[in-house]
């Protein structure tokens, strides 16, 4: 385990003794804080660091997901080079002073208690406790109504014409 910039990392893999804490500290950049994993590989006696997200991270894609680590090592690292894989540990934040801790505990206990319904004191508050009305049908716009009526008229004219035609041919 190593701690740097307030973050704690655990060494998951150390291939060919690639892990060197001093070199990592010298090369580390704050940009890497956003990643869940860091891969460090050695080439020409220089350490190169690359960040990767966990598999289900919203920003993860094929190239930045840890599932692509093997591809990265095979394609971008020198053949057979030493490397290491670090995993960022989740932070457990504790309240700094006892007042914050007490406040947090009081808030949690209050939230766990069942809430009692508040009885209204004046008639204005009664409005809040009335049964909700059933949703109304959406009102049709004027243009929509006019269009609907013209379609109905056109349809009824067509039906009258057809009825008249069948009546003439039938008699």
Largest sheet: 5 strands, antiparallel
The number of strands is: 5
Task: Determine the number of helices (DSSP H or I, runs of at least 4 residues).
Answer: 5
Backbone shape = rod-shaped
User: How would you classify the helix and strand content by structural class?
Assistant: alpha+beta
Q: What's a quick, concise take on this entry?
A:
It is built from five helices and five strands; from the N terminus they run ββαββαβααα. The model has no long low-confidence stretch (mean pLDDT 77). The chain starts with a strand and ends with a helix.
Write the layout of secondary structure elements.
Layout: E1 2-4, E2 7-15, H1 21-27, E3 37-43, E4 46-52, H2 69-76, E5 83-88, H3 98-112, H4 123-129, H5 142-170
Antiparallel strand pairs: 1-2, 2-5, 3-4, 3-5
Structure commentary:
The chain is α+β, with helices and mostly antiparallel strands. 39% of the residues lie in helices and 19% in strands. The mean pLDDT is 77.
Structural descriptors:
single chain; 171 residues; alpha+beta; 5-stranded antiparallel beta sheet; rod-shaped
